Amino acid sequence: MSVMSAHSEQAVAVSRGERFKAWFREKLTVENIQRFLNSIAALKYGIFFALLLLLLPFTTFSKIPILDTTVPFHNITGGVYVDLGFGGVLLATLVLTLTTWSLLYTQGLIIEGIETRYGPDINQLESDTEKRKDFIPEQMYQFFSAEAYWGQLIAYFCVVALSGTVIVIFHAEQWYWAIAAALLGLAGGYLIIILVCTPAVLLIEDQEKGLKLLPDPVSTWVWQKARMVTWLCGLFQWLRWKISQAGKIIQFVPAVLGKEKTEFRLINPKHFLAILVVGFLIIPGIIAWTTEFRFDTMPALVYAYLLILFLIWTFSALDFHLARFRVNSLFVFLAFMVILSSFTHTDHFFEVRITPTEALTPVDVVKGSRQKDNLVVIVSSGGGIKATAWTTLALKDLIATRPELIDEIRLVSTVSGGTVGAAYFLDELCHSTLDREAKDNNEVKTVLDTVYQKSTTSSLAAVMYGFAFFDFWHLVSGGLLPPGLTDRGTLLESEWQEIAGERDEVEQPRKCQQGNILSFREDIRNGYLPAFIFNATVMESGRRVMITPVNFEKSNEPFNEIRGDTLTEILLKGNDLDKTHEADLNLWTAARLSAAFPYVTPAARAKIGDKGDLKDLEFRQPWQQYHIIDGGYYDNFGVTSALDWLEPVLQARLNPQAGLEFEKVIIIQLRASPKAGRTCYKNDGGAASAFVGPLQGLLNIRNGVALSRNEIELHRFIKSWNARFAQQKTEQDRVHLRTVVIEPLLNIDPDTCTPPVLEAQDETGIKTREDPLSWHLTNTQTKDLEEVWQQEKMIISSDRPPGSKLGLQDIFE
Prior knowledge:
By secondary structure, this protein is α/β, with parallel strands linked by helices. The protein is built from 33 helices and 14 strands.
């Protein structure tokens, strides 16, 4: 019996296998492959945006568990799905619902208009099902349809948007409230879809043959009530007629191509709905461009979804109209932007003021010091908001360890994210009422705690808001819209200034409270504030540029380019004003230029704001129109400019008549990311090296070359000057230089390139994922950063043997 059963099961298995092979041979035909490829060609943009919506939420995770590889873009977009409150989850799911429906609806219009690609008339396709199957599979018509049903919406939402919704809830501040917010967002989004579809439904005369959108009790009730409003139906009929008449204007295109003009007919309700949606999407942009109303109070994720929503409608509209001419929509889009931008001379700008010169040399800065024994220079690296927080956290604890350090710091040379941290530090000191003579450590601690809290505040929403409401339309219109200079760069600096906070007016405000970098000179000269150099890069030349209130003497050396240029030297070069005037700009504008990491912040060039008495001054020379980008392209550590500043100071210290008395020079380097061993980088395969190797090499130069160059230059600089001061005859004329590096502990043995075994090791997330390069820190990342600073930072001194365990107090001994 068992033998017969086994034979029977085997026969069934063979039969199933044969049927599967027969079915597979039947389906795998040239015609079916052609129809499948036609579907891919028709839905290429829809497939791209669907995959984007599906996969983007997974950038929240740092690694792919099975492959043990880093998730791409985790360090840029990973934080936007995390730590959302009730309102953030509600808005995110609402916009995600609208985006999902838009994708389904636009792809439905493209599928229903497939005849524009392959020839037959739409009526013929709709009446001849078999003929429709000759072009794309019938399933495409059934699923991708503008006449969306509940089943389609649910299935499409689960495929495209469920991952984003679940991940937002999972990482929300309170998951149970997040579930309620997500449900409300879904319901709100669906209700908006019903209202948006109402105009198209009111145009349908025969509900049985017309547009069947969302046939559920809610939509049915809404549309029944809307049909009772006579004037509303008349309004939409009038709009439909006007839009249809406007459509006659474009009939010259078929005539040019030698085709017969089609007879006039009213626009299809489905197409009428698409036009209305595009109009609805433009309205928020017009409000943002023409009023002071601010939309940038929502989470960054909402603006990211809005940007995707705009892109879906843009590319779907282009593809719908251009496919019949066998023209690639992306090519037309890019060509239109390039051609129109070349005529409109579109660009991004930052405002500068040209003011009379009031010299402040590096020697003047040191003479104003309230502490004469130590000269401390802080250099801080780039690295997005992590570098911002690392800089302020380090300054907070360093000054808490040595309170007099707040007066000993005479220069802060920073790059990118470190610059933003320095700007918060300078701004808070400028507006604080600290009594330096009283030496109230609790008051100092309060000020520095405030600086750190501000530096960890997210500003990514301003960037995404600028992308969605300004820079996107700037690209689409070739620079014609929106009017004014507002872009994601100006919005970012406004956000930083808002985070810094509005202060109450005081009877005798300091001059630095004017907010421009040159207004800091008086307090720097008096020793109340340190001098600062915000480092940036000239995009066209790749040269370093220093944005600073400090004046540097021109070199008389044969090689007169031994230091970087200041912004004034670039903008006023070859002008008679270069000896009598200077370029001035807002503190936060300067910070934005130093931290202008594309594509987060755009490259920008100078535009004269307040000309004062210089009415005829214009920036017409090529070098005056250079674009300023992130300082990390040239030097991501701020060391080179610090050495440029120290050179004249040390030269003056050799002269007893100069009045400088410092005995020590301590260069404290704050690096937000650890230095890896030279042989501990992961190697890539042959395919990766062939396709992306050159680009990867260029990108890695920033850290590889810049770091080794800085260490070599700094080592030689310190060694040379220590030797020169050692030759001084008296003890009081001798000065000792050293440098100290404070960075996260790299949990890799440089000899074996493997993680060492540490007792009670508890891996923190910040060591197991890439550094966040955007302007958003999650709560977990902030806690990890503080844990690394307290327990796992590494302090390296040029005066101590390698491997020495040092504390903050050892830096100054």
